[in-house]
Amino acid sequence: GGRAFLDCIQHEGASMPGDPGQSTFTISMFFQGQRVRSNQFACACEPTINETFLFEVAAGDGRDSKEEQLLQTPDQLHLILLCQKGAEWEAVAGCYLDWRRVLVSEHGRTSCSVEVKGLAAECAVTVGILDLVVELVPWRGKVVAMETFSTHMKVEENRFSERERLFYIYTKQWWKEFLQIRPSHSQRLIKIFSQDEFGAKWPVFSFVHPLKADWILESPRHAARFVSLIPYVQSSTTFGSEGCRREVWSSLHTLLSCKKGVSFSVRLMSACL
């Protein structure tokens, strides 16, 4: 279920989803190339959500036990909360969820409350709280020790931080050498980092993921035609100020869920096809 969706208080007591003028929510989730979507439910301060999503976890092949392979799978669940107003869908909140805590719980089942925050210009604002139950099936009866889990997560975090630091140092050196080639390079618009819908900054190449769609799109011409059908929307602003407009590169999951996007995100999808 959900709670603390304070922006939806005005909809309390409204009629069921599908009625004219009634706003509805739906949840879209993405994990390891699998994308699922919930049924619509009423937009309310404490919405009732009874949905079950099933994902197949592709763990690495190796000599480690199955539990250790799952622990070494860094892919997170990407959750997007969509709101339908009339015929339009809008992404209003989202989050990333690390599902691996289920490995340290008895019976392979754990409950958690997740804050979903706004997107783009409202990425620091909590929209509401979702109560989730994560379960690993089939349950093999083996629990990862909490000490092992904590150590692995700490090592993984340190490794990621070190990679970020080294890339930042390399980027500074590359930019310095690039400007030394000729003075006119300082006038070129070159983007190295960009901000996603959650406010995090990433190297621009991390937004490009090859999509295998040859069974639908037979040629680059078909891919270009498909992308051209995606409607453009304006970039988000902070408190309605045009001077504070942000350039946000949304994930492909967010773009496909909304069936529209800003020009940067649409062009990114074209590069991925």
Task: Explain what this protein looks like in three dimensions.
With 273 residues, the chain is of the alpha+beta class. Helix content is 25%, strand content 22%. The two termini are 36 Å apart. The protein has helices at residues 66-71, 146-181, 220-228, 252-258, 263-272, and strands spanning 2-3, 24-31, 34-37, 41-42, 77-85, 88-97, 109-117, 126-135, 193-195, 201-203. A hairpin with a 5-residue loop joins strand 9 (193-195) and strand 10 (201-203).
Low-confidence stretches: 238-243
State the secondary-structure class: alpha+beta
- Helix run count: 5
What characterizes the major β-sheet?
5 strands, antiparallel
Helix share bin: 10-25%
**Strand residues, percent:** 15-25%
| Radius of gyration, in angstroms, nearest whole number | 21 Å
- What is the terminal-to-terminal distance? 36 Å
State mean pLDDT (0 to 100 scale): 85
| Helix-strand pattern | EEEEHEEEEHEEHHH
Number of strands: 10
**Shape label:** globular
SSE map:
Layout lengths: L1 E2 L20 E8 L2 E4 L3 E2 L23 H6 L5 E9 L2 E10 L11 E9 L8 E10 L10 H36 L11 E3 L5 E3 L16 H9 L23 H7 L4 H10 L1
Antiparallel strand pairs: 1-8, 2-3, 2-4, 2-5, 5-6, 7-8, 9-10
Salient structural properties:
273 residues; alpha+beta; 5 helices; 10 strands
State the gist of this model.
This protein is of the alpha+beta class. The protein has five helices and ten strands; from the N terminus they run ββββαββββαββααα. α3 (220-228) packs antiparallel against α5 (263-272).
